[in-house]
Amino acid sequence: MGIRIRTLSSTSTVDDFEVEEDQDGSPDLPAPSGHQSLLAQARSRQRLSLRELLAKPLLRQALEPDLLRRLKRGDSTLALVIAAPSPAWVAPLSEALKDLALQGLQIITPSERLSRPEEQIYRAEEAARALAKGVTIAGVAADPNRELSQVLLAAADATVIVPAPDAALVEQAIRAFSRKGKPVTLLTRDLAGLDWPDYCAAFRPGSTRPAIAARLARAAGARTGVMFVEDAPPLETLTGYGEARTWAEEIVREVEDRRAGHAQVAVLESCLLFGPPGTGKTSIAKALSGKLQLQLVMTSVADWFGASGGHLGAVVKEQQRFFATLRASRPCVAFIDEIDALPSRGSLAGSQHSDFWAPVITGMLLGIDTLRQTCPDVVLIAATNHLDRVDPALRRPGRFDRLIEIAPPDVEGLIGILRAHLNGELADVDLAHVAQLLLGRVGADVVQVVSSARRRARLAGRALTLDYLLAEASPPDPRSLAELKACAIHEAGHAVVAVALGRTLQGVSLQLAGASGGMTRMAHPGFIPTRAVIEDNVVIGLAGRAADVVLGAGASGGAVGDLALATRELSALHASYGLGDRLLHWGNLDDDGALVRVDSGFAHRIEDDLQRLMNRAITLVTQHKAAVLSVAKALVAQRVLSGVQVQALMEAYPPSAAGIADIPASAAETDCADPLDGNFGEITPPG
């Protein structure tokens, strides 16, 4: 049985490619032994042609026409820097560059030891000698700023960024490589995160076109951290994200303008999202990726440790692999989760662990710098629950241009999240009360409430109703009625005094949250901390204790958090802001509380302010006694009230002219032991 072998001439056309016979620049293979078959030799030759089919066309696309002509003519000395998609692409691109250029081109290989002085000197002399002789040189590296000599970088006439091959180029390569099977159509996701070895493994001699395409798609699907998000919520449906969603929509418009050719190529703005756990930082990255139809490349410091065993060199290599994946996957959305797992260098001063973390932190800084310089089409996003723990060098513009907080959503945001996860169910039902019950909780809590309500309805064999949502949003309260009334009076004091002082009240609740028996939420009063604003904050914080004194059973230890907040606010007023009787700046805000413990004079000053502002809070509660009681009674009945409802009750029960001299020490000294049993009737707050 004969073997038919098809050979190519030295320059033959295969579909859209000129396929040249491999020259001495091809990767060296062992010489075939005498007993190897001609078929094995032919297959080896065919495998080497992948450089012709992928690397060389990719390089041609990246080189400007003028540079390509100058390389081919060899009539002028050039110094080039070629940024490869990944370290694995360096060798094939170097060989392709030799094929494209006139004989005499010198390739400068990358070095991972440039941190060593002797290596820096050697590499600098290597580039300088070649340029002095009039030789055209090209440094090819995945991370030129880190792996090539500064002499070469400074002398470079051009820096050429070579992207990963797109679907059209790979389709052409498959057509040229194999004549078997129908032409294939590839999607961007079929190539997501693939590296040069993946292409070498997929382009096997004798394979059909569909088989090659299937191997590529399988390899892309196996890439950890690289994905196309199928179930991402539509960006336009996200609610409660505020500035974060606005930023994402701006990125979408900018990318779409680029695709339409209406905008110049510039670095896309990066963003560091921060806020409590469960606020949806990952969700917005997925939604943005889905909206742009770009692959999402995710990582975390924990992933680097998990994939490397935790040794320093291996962790750094995993970090470098992440940035190499981004270069190979561009354009894409990059998401670094829990970035505060990299400690701030300030917190490592004098620590025995600083030698370990310094290279990792530096690697992150340099990796982001290089990424943003060489890959302007990568959208870089990071997330943290603790912004203060992130190194200041990471937070600065140029690395992360925007710092955006995603706070727990307000009532409207909660309603939107509920609607999104109800998927059209209960479309005609008012969800405002459910949202009020969830006020202060995050999006992840809302998702859990909806899931649990559905499960409860399914187990009961019934359709989902509002009652199931309410039952999950406000589970049975283990507190006694007396405890509920005491908490209601306390929270009503906060809420009523806040409105009386002109604050915008978002809501008040008796919902249990950890050690807290209730919560009063109001809008931020502004960003200028005047003495009046700070003292009003303290009065509102002390108003719960004031209500306990005036209308309840007296002061209790339940107000410990309120007292701590009031002490911190007043300490900052005197020690940091210069708003007391001295201008001296005693320390940072975090240090102010310590002054109370170590400086008795400072502690007396704070105590005097606390007593004065407590009297003011008692006066306000006494003047608004009827309103406080009405709000407390409504809270016991409904568990939660909106700011509008509290405002309506205050209008129904206007303040009296009572003064501090009219205030009893506690409710125990009055004729009414339980003020909530007073003559208020059945209170139904409007709205």
Overview of the structural elements:
The protein is an alpha/beta fold and 687 residues long. The protein has five domains: 63-161, no CATH class; 167-223, no CATH class; 235-405, Rossmann fold (3-Layer(aba) Sandwich); 411-473, Orthogonal Bundle (Helicase, Ruva Protein, domain 3), CATH 1.10.8; 481-677, Methane Monooxygenase Hydroxylase, Chain G, domain 1. It is 49% helix and 9% strand. It has 27 helices and 15 strands. Strands 7-9-10-11-8-12 form a six-stranded mixed beta sheet, sandwiched between helices. It is elongated, with a radius of gyration of 34 Å. It starts with 10 loop residues before the first strand and ends in a 35-residue tail after the last helix. GO terms for molecular function: ATP binding; ATP hydrolysis activity; ATP-dependent peptidase activity; metalloendopeptidase activity. InterPro entries: AAA+_ATPase, ATPase_AAA_core, ATPase_AAA_CS, P-loop_NTPase, Peptidase_M41, Peptidase_M41-like.
